[in-house]
Structures are given as C-alpha cells and as structure tokens.
Amino acid sequence: MGVEIRVEGLTKSFGRQTIWQDVSLTVPAGEISVLLGPSGTGKSVFLKSLVGLLKPDRGHIWIGDRDLPRLPESKLYETRKLFGVLFQDGALFGSMNLYDNVAFPLREHTKKSESQVRQIVMEKLELVGLVGAERKLPGEISGGMKKRAGLARALVLDPEILLVDEPDSGLDPVRTALLNQTMVDLNAEIGATFLIVTHDINTARTVPDNIGLLFLRELVMFGPREMLLSSEEPVVRQFLNARTVGPIGMSEEKDVSELEAEAALGRDPGRLPPIPPQLMTSDGRIRPGQHAPGAWCAAHGVTPPAGSFVDDLGRDWVEEWPRYVASMAPGAAAAADGGFAGDPRPGPSAPGAGR
Predict the structure, then answer these.
(1) 46 and 169 share one domain
(2) Closest CA to 203 of 28, 29, 34, 45
C-alpha cells in the first residue's frame, strides 16, 4: 500500500527568485494524483524536493511520520527507498541494455543474488510489456519503450511512492494513451501512491483521482479530480481549454494592460469542457482511490459542465455506475437487460474509453 505525502507551507527559491511559496497539500496514500501548471512554474523542482534532492527554504514534507527536510542523512537515504522516479526522458544508461538498466538499483542497493535479480527484473519488464526486449540498448528502441523501461526501473525496488515527471514528453498521442493505461493498471496492481507531473490535458482529465495546479508561485488548488475540472477559476478554465485568453501568458503572467484589454473586448477563457469518465483498468476492476462519477459534485452542490461523465457511446456513467459496481462484485450475475453481461471489462463504451 502507498504512503501519504503531506506538504505544509513549503517554499523554495533560487537566490532572489521564488519558485513557489507556502504550498500545502496532501497526496492521499495509494491514489493517483496529477500536478499541472504552465511551463516554468517549478513542477519538476517540486518533485525533486519531495524526494530530498533539493532542500526547501522552509516548510515540511511529511512522508508517513518522517519530516523529510529535517532528516539526518542516514534517515533520508532510507526514506528515499520508498520512492521510485520516472524521469522525463527515461534517464537510461545508454551503454547498458534494458535488462541491466532495470537491474541497476537492485545491484546497487540490495544484496540479492543474480537469480533473484533476474526474477524481479523479468517480473517488472512483464508488467510494462517489455519481455523480449531486455537485451536491446536504449538507442535501439522507441521513445515509448524507453519510458516503459524507465518505469520498470522505477518499480524494481517495490516503491510505495512513484513520482512521474512528464510521462508524455516526446510521445505521440497513442503512446501517451498506452502509457496512461499502464500507470492506471500498475496503480491497481501495486497500490503505490502516484504523483504525475504533466502538461497533457487528456492525461490530467482522465487518469487521476486528484489534481493540483501551480501558477504564479502558488498552488491554485489541489483536490479531487472533479473539484478542479468543475472550477470557475480563470486560470483553470484557460489551462483546460488551451486558450490564449486568460491570466497565463508567454512569460507565465500577463500584465495588467493585457488583462484589461481582454476584459474590454468581453473575452474570457471559455466555458469548461465536460468532465470525462475516468480511465478504467484494463481488466475493469475498480481501484480503491476511484470514486463514483459525479460523487464529488453532488456532495458539494456543484453542477458539472454540460455533457459530463458521458462516454463515446452516449452512456451517462452517473447512472451506469451502480450497475457497473454490482456487476463487478464477486459472484455477481449480469443484469437481465444485458448491461454488463458476459464480460464486465471496459470496452468502447466504458469510462475513459477512447479519451
């Protein structure tokens, strides 16, 4: 099971430049969370701070009951073993084949025999669909395969927390979708806490249980997926709509005159797009961190954007969800009307399909 990450009043600067300040959030144990934000807002710096590679100016990072910035070196080293990290480019050693890349952490940090190492490495390569490619060098494989190899290496020490930095970087939409599916399946399989930094709006809208947004050196919000995807904050609407209208500019923040000109012309970041059904696991199981579609909105009296939670075949998953849950219960019989008869796994009409 994953470990909760609790951040309190975190501030980081380089010289006179403040990267972000007074950031507070809780990444729930075992759930998938995404951190969004315009380029240059310090998302990668945030990940490096969480793993102890950078020390914040002030604030706390609680990993379970350990306050990371205040740990002695020996305790920090032990706490880092709870983490696995997938870097933007995979960060593979170019002179090593995939097998040796994945085996590297085991050989460096454990005393396992080579037979034990082989068993673990092949298990992780199978998890990410790379069995048969283990003898290839990084220069002989595609960008998507490099990402999956980096993911296998991040998993090899069985981390309780997985940090993923820009998994979509350099990948086409199809490979990004395949990697998203892999991460959702892995979360269901290993139960680790996932924190993903991304610019990909489709990933942010369909994959996580929780979403946060960094902007102007602050955390605009962090919480359940539906909270951010239904927010009327101008910066949220602009980012989700990929519009030029709104507070985000080429230098991160637009000046007052630009915003006043947009307001005078009656321009705004646009309406929020519908909230899509969340991406399901390949075998249709319901992850512990996954909640009923529309549940957060209903509990907080929020009306979601029109068309929310409707899949590509027009099925409303606020209505379908109770039947789907019932169909997935052990020994459950399919409904007489055939809603999920025979094979309850997600197909084209299931939550997240084709998105």
Answers:
(1) yes
(2) 34
Residues 221 and 322: their CA atoms lie apart, in Å, by: 30
Q: Which segments in the chain show pLDDT lower than 50?
A: 254-256, 259-260, 262, 334-338, 341-349, 353-355
Which pLDDT score, from 0 to 100, does residue 266 have?
52
Distance CA 34, CA 194 (A): 8
The DSSP H or E segment spanning 300 is none
Share of the chain above pLDDT 90, in %: 51
pLDDT in tens, 195-234: 999 888 889 999 999 999 998 888 999 999 999 999 988 8
pLDDT the model gives residue 239? 81
Rounded CA-CA distance 50/44 in Å is 10
Cα 314 to Cα 61: distance, rounded to the nearest angstrom? 43
User: How crowded is residue 140: how many other Cβ atoms within 10 Å of its Cβ?
Assistant: 11
Do residues 259 and 347 both lie within one domain? Answer: no
Burial of 177 (0-12, 13-18, 19+ CB in 10 A): buried
Q: Which residue has the tokens 């796994």?
A: 345
Q: In what order do the strands lie in the sheet with 58-63?
A: 17-27, 5-14, 58-63, 66-67
Which pTM does this prediction carry?
0.85
Q: Do 105 and 189 share a domain, yes or no?
A: yes
Query: Are residues 66 and 140 located together in one domain of the fold?
Result: yes
**Closest Cα to residue 277, out of 163, 164, 184, 214?**
184
Give the domain range for residue 100.
Answer: 5-224
Distance between CA atoms of residues 206 and 196, nearest Å? 13
